[in-house]
Amino acid sequence: MRRCVAVVGPDQAATGANREAARLAGQWLAEHDVLVLTGGLGGVMASAAEGVADAGGMSIGLLPGHDRTLGDPSLTIALPTGLGELRNGLLVRSAEVVLAIGGSWGTLSEIALAVRTGVPVVSLDGWDLPESTLVVASSLDEALTAVWSLLA
Predict the structure, then answer these.
(1) I need a labelling partner for 58 at 20 to 30 A (CA). Which of 12, 31, 48, 73 fits?
(2) pLDDT at residue 128 in the model
(3) Average pLDDT, stretch 101-124?
(4) Which residues are CB-neighbours of 146 under 8 A, at least 6 positions away?
């Protein structure tokens, strides 16, 4: 069975560096036959899906609304949940590891939900949080190495 990693991060507030890291992470995960979950919208989520598509992998976007056409076109599957921000809980509980790239309020909620429910989190360029609750990476390579070791 395929391993499953959620890549989370800001939508409109994503920086160019966040987007590039997410694209490379999506590509790397797909090359390692990992299914990538996202929130299905823009920014980090879209960039991760683009990287997955570039590598011929599979990505699933759990959309907040009811309209699947609002999902990023790079997604393999766009699932409208109709749950709004509550979909963040579904997203992190569906993953074996959460890779958070960048920081926004939605990202912080995903990190908190993952930590509260025992889903490991690797954070790159995000919130300054207690490291005892998550792995804080200083580079994309370090983040991907941590994700891979948590999947083992």
Answers:
(1) 12
(2) 84
(3) 95
(4) 122, 135, 137
Which residues lie across from 97 on neighbouring strands? Answer: 5
To the nearest whole number, what is the mean pLDDT of the chain?
A: 96
Please tell me the distance from the alpha carbon of residue 98 to that of residue 3, in angstroms, as a whole number: 12
Segments forming the whole domain that contains residue 113: 3-151
CA dist 36 → 101, 106, 131 (Å): 14, 18, 24
The single-letter code of the amino acid at 48 is: A
Read off φ and ψ for residue 122, nearest 5 degrees: -115, 125
Distant-in-sequence, close-in-space partners of 120: CB < 8 Å, separation ≥ 6: 96, 97, 98, 114, 134, 135, 150
DSSP for 9-60?
--STT--HHHHHHHHHHHHHHHHTTEEEEE-SSSTHHHHHHHHHHHTT--EE
DSSP state of 135: E
CATH number at residue 135: 3.40.50.450
Question: pTM score, two decimals?
Answer: 0.95
Buried b (16+ CB within 10 A) or exposed e, 36-48: bbbbbbbbbbbbb
Total number of domains in the chain = 1
